[in-house]
Amino acid sequence: MNIVIGYVDNAAGNAALRVGLSEAALRGAAVRVRHVVRVGTHNEPPESIERMRGRLEQITRQIASQGLVGDAELLLERGEPADAILDEVVRLRADLLVIGSRRRSRVGKLLLGSTSQQLVLRAPCAVLSLRPSASP
């Protein structure tokens, strides 16, 4: 079994990480943590990207220390983050996608769209969407 965790370094993303790792341990699954940085339109500052690389290295060590098989990677993409995560889900033949979601206003969803909504609607596998208060 393969689990992909779409990770963002916020409360919802940390809930997804926590529950995704618990699910991997329960099911004996490999776990792949992916964070997408969108480049080209509004570039992230290099120090922000390096900080995230450091965080993902910590997560990779956490995966290993829990006796799990897996990794954490930073994806630099020009397109939509949802597309990059979905590409990884297909490439890795994921059985489960775990994501965090946060509450947004209707106007915010209309203007910006929702990555988590796109993932739930388009993923070719089961999706577990968590709020920040989720616990394993």
Give a description of the structure:
The chain is an alpha/beta fold. It contains five helices and five strands, in the order βαβαβαβααβ. It has a single domain (7-14, 23-78, 92-108, 118-136), classed as HUPs (Rossmann fold, 3-Layer(aba) Sandwich), CATH 3.40.50. Helix content is 46%, strand content 24%. β2 (30-38), α2 and β3 form a beta-alpha-beta unit. α3 packs parallel to α5 (115-122). The longest helix has 20 residues, at 46-65. The chain is globular and about 40 Å long.
Into how many domains do the coordinates divide?
1
Read across the widest sheet, the strand sequence of neighbours is 3-2-1-4-5
Give the fraction of residues assigned to helices.
Answer: 40-55%
- Structural class, judged by helices and strands? alpha/beta
* SSE pattern: EHEHEHEHHE
Q: Which CATH class is shown?
A: Alpha Beta
- Got a strand count? 5
What characteristic shape results from the CA principal axes?
Answer: globular
Q: Could you tell me the strand content as a percent range?
A: 15-25%
Identify the CATH architecture.
Answer: 3-Layer(aba) Sandwich
Question: What summary fits the major beta sheet?
Answer: 5 strands, parallel
Number of helices: 5
**Regions with little confidence, pLDDT below 50 for 5+ residues:** none
CATH superfamily: HUPs
Taking the alpha carbons of the first and last residues, their distance comes to 19 Å
Question: Measured on Cα atoms, how large is the radius of gyration?
Answer: 14 Å
- Find the CATH topology: Rossmann fold
Mean pLDDT value = 90
